[in-house]
Write a structure and sequence with these properties.
- This protein is an all-alpha fold.
- Helix 5 crosses helix 7 and helix 8 packs across helix 9.
Length: 272
């Protein structure tokens, strides 16, 4: 399969534009025109593409060819063209094939492209397949973070799948899964118990787990926050997060502490 370096073609196009307009634009003005020129380039016929424009070059391909073209670009270390991604985002019938590559054991950069394109397409049927990938930490950290972000925006659709595998997941996986659970609605005792347990067992990450309980919005977390905010060795950063959490859940923090010697307090206040 022929893979044409579209970015290289644009570089040639841009250089030609500069040569034809010498002295007409400042360096800053040229930088501002890159986006405009790239868009125009996408609609202009190009002899390297058989006389069609970059948009038509990819737009004329069927779905399978587009996906395989994407795979070839990544594996050949050729920059993936925005026009290829654009064509995939708008092509009918590619969701199942993209899902196969998004969830299987393939080049992670390629899988990342597939995941992002599916997300742009609004394809949610693959979301449940993302849960075991996170639960088993089957992919690299960048993909796990991306999948977590995507599922957090669609948390209710995968809540049951996460609850069914959470107990057997390792600590790293749980750190991702709990972020998704914190975004679910409505309040569920099973979810609250997980969030509560995580908060109580992560003394060194208090601020993070306070944020999850606060986001979840269950005021049963108030007594947990009120107990924690009274701990003797609490840091200023954790105290601040707990105070915000108490207030967000409808409570009032009446505890006052002297943090003048606290490292996080000094850093936030710019005290040396």
């Amino acid at each position: 399969m022929k893979t044409v370096d579209i970015d290289k073609l644009f570089e040639d196009y841009f250089r030609k534009f500069i040569a034809e307009n010498t002295g007409k634009f400042s360096e800053d003005e040229l930088e501002d025109k890159v986006s405009e020129l790239y868009s125009a380039f996408g609609d202009e016929p190009n002899k390297e593409l058989g006389g069609v424009s970059p948009r038509k070059y990819f737009g004329n391909m069927d779905g399978e060819t587009l996906v395989l073209n994407l795979k070839e670009y990544v594996e050949s270390n050729i920059p993936v063209s925005d026009y290829l991604c654009e064509a995939l985002e708008n092509k009918d019938g590619v969701d199942e094939l993209l899902s196969k590559y998004a969830t299987g054991v393939f080049n992670e950069e390629f899988s990342t492209y597939c995941i992002n394109i599916l997300n742009t397409r609004g394809y949610t049927a693959v979301h449940k397949a993302y849960v075991p990938i996170i639960a088993k930490c089957e992919k690299g950290e960048n993909i796990l973070e991306l999948l977590t972000e995507i599922l957090t925006d669609n948390a209710d659709g995968v809540k049951e799948e996460i609850l069914s595998c959470y107990a057997d997941a390792n600590e790293k996986a749980k750190s991702y899964l709990i972020e998704v659970l914190a975004a679910t609605t409505p309040v569920d005792d099973r979810v609250f118990d997980i969030l509560k347990g995580a908060f109580l067992s992560h003394d060194k990450e208090t601020s993070l787990y306070v944020s999850y309980l606060t986001k979840y919005g269950d005021d049963r977390a108030l007594p947990l926050f009120e107990d924690a905010v009274r701990k003797e060795n609490i840091s200023y950063a954790d105290f601040k997060e707990l105070k915000l959490g108490i207030e967000a859940l409808g409570g009032e923090c009446t505890v006052h502490r002297d943090f003048s010697k606290d490292k996080s307090f000094k850093a936030i206040k710019g005290i040396h």
